[in-house]
Specification:
single chain; 119 residues; alpha+beta; 60s Ribosomal Protein L30, Chain: A; seven-stranded mixed β-sheet; 2 helices; 7 strands; 29% strand; globular
């Protein structure tokens, strides 16, 4: 069985799927870099939706999510956006931690694992 990749660059892929499981790269807010955490969270979640769709999955099929915030004290701001995004009854297991990110303008990075959509 082959590995399927989407959004490939020389350095990484946006996703890689193997045996029905999709692994997503960390997604950051490139268009809203430096903007508020809420704006960046909205962009990152929209990017996750796009990457999941390109890989044959969706947010309802998430198996695990890791969220990295530059300031964990602002988790409530992120959760307000997250709670509107996540599909009721399909909230995935999730870990949220504080971390230094690749650019000082990034406030959030999200990576995930999902199951491919059946059929």
């Amino acid at each position: 069985m082959d590995i399927e990749r989407t959004g490939m660059t020389a350095r990484y892929s946006d996703s890689a799927a193997f045996r029905g499981i999709v692994f997503l790269a960390g997604h950051v807010a490139e268009k809203t870099e430096g903007a508020s955490l809420a704006e960046q969270t909205r962009e990152v979640l929209a990017l996750l939706d796009e990457t999941l769709a390109a890989a044959g999955s969706s947010k309802e099929r998430l198996l695990s999510v890791q969220i990295f915030l530059t300031d964990i004290a602002r988790i409530g701001e992120m959760n307000e956006i997250w709670d509107r995004w996540v599909t009721p009854g399909h909230a995935p297991p999730r870990a949220t931690v504080q971390a230094a990110l690749a650019s000082p303008g990034y406030a959030i990075e999200i990576t995930a694992v999902a199951a491919k959509t059946d059929g």
